[in-house]
Amino acid sequence: MTTSALPSPCACAAAPPMGRFGLAVLLSGGFITIFDLFVVNVAIPSMQATLSASFAQINFIIAAYELAYGVLLIAGSRLGDRHGRRRLFVLGMAGFALASALCGLAPTANTLIGARILQGVAAAMLFPQVYALIRVSYEGHARRRAFGLLGMTLGLAAIAGQVLGGWLVHADLFGLAWRAIFLINVPLGLVAWRLARHMPESREPSGAAMDWPGAALVGAGLALLLLALIEGPARHWPAWTLASAGASVAALAAFVHMQRRIAARGGAPLVDMALLAQPRFAAGCLLVMLVFSTASAMFLCYALLVQTGFGLDALTAGMIFAPASVGFVAGSMAAPRLVARFGTPAIALAALLYGGATAALMLQVGAAGAGLAPWTLVPALVWLGAAQGAVNTPLVNLALGLVEDRQAGMAAGVVSTLQQVGAALGVSAAGMLFGGTLDAYADASAAERHARAFASAMQFNVAAILAAAALLWWLGRRR
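-> structure tokens emitted (479 positions)
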């Protein structure tokens, strides 16, 4: 399970105090963006049935939102600093409502993918303002309380994505099926957009200008990489998918060169490459990508396993997974105390427990095959959720603690972006294994095929988590 990152603004101009009503509106922005990270998973089988979506298209529906969201988070933060954080919140909320309507009305899978990209763009404009406005509107205990309420809101959004989303799909309100999970955002977004006047405005006009060419280049490079990873296995690697992978490498290399040139002439690059040249911070960034790549992969594979493979409805699938969300909240609450007492080794142990829970799920499903009773997954899912919460919660602070204070703003933007980029890449990597195994067991029953595919895909998660645990051990020794 993953919530979004913390795009931490640097020196922020003070804003007028924010009342409780304004804070509630602000928190609704955080809720709606995280809700849409999670809710799509329970609707995957319904989308496949009504849109005749291929497995690759399902991967894009999930990854497109995460990639657009991640790549433009820094842009959203900088635009809010320069043009007004409340203004960007309002624009982002209105854009999110419009994009959600386009998602809900999408006639084809490709149209839905395009609308999901627009949703991700709007979320990237909206979400950084939530953190920035809390930071500049409160001080001391009031700020800690506001951030605590935000953390609780994001946790509830993750749980609601599974349970409320499952109910919406299962209830099939007005015959809308999966479309209801998007259309519900429209009235919520419009109400929040209308009530945003209760929030204070703040800006930091001296903030860095936005590097749009750099954002376009890194976005194109990552999109080409996802295209190759998702379409390549599905189409048996035709020449154009290999060309896409090569173009991705070229675009990302050009991005690195561009960022170094901007920094050399005293400009404000999107990413300071000198920051990534620091071995410990580079390791921290890789660590963030590895850990956050596993969450979206798990959601995708779990939904396909229990709904498409075993025929459960969306509500039952969400209810089975809901205890994992409760475990995540419990692990998140325990993590700060454990890290304060034991340091980085506590996070490394939590990572090993997370990997153990993933391996236990993989072995349980693989051994049971078509005879699996989905409700028997609950104990391992609770274990997984608690361990994941204990890893994810302190991970961003750990990575940001690897740089000097003067670099914290840039580092926060980089880590924020890598959370979502890692999630998108995880979907494509696990999806590659899942789809390949489905094809290999084409003659087996649906339940057997999906059980085998789930066990195969979870090999990626286990490997990523073990690599993360090794990095945590190394960082612990270096610290």
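The mean pLDDT is 85.
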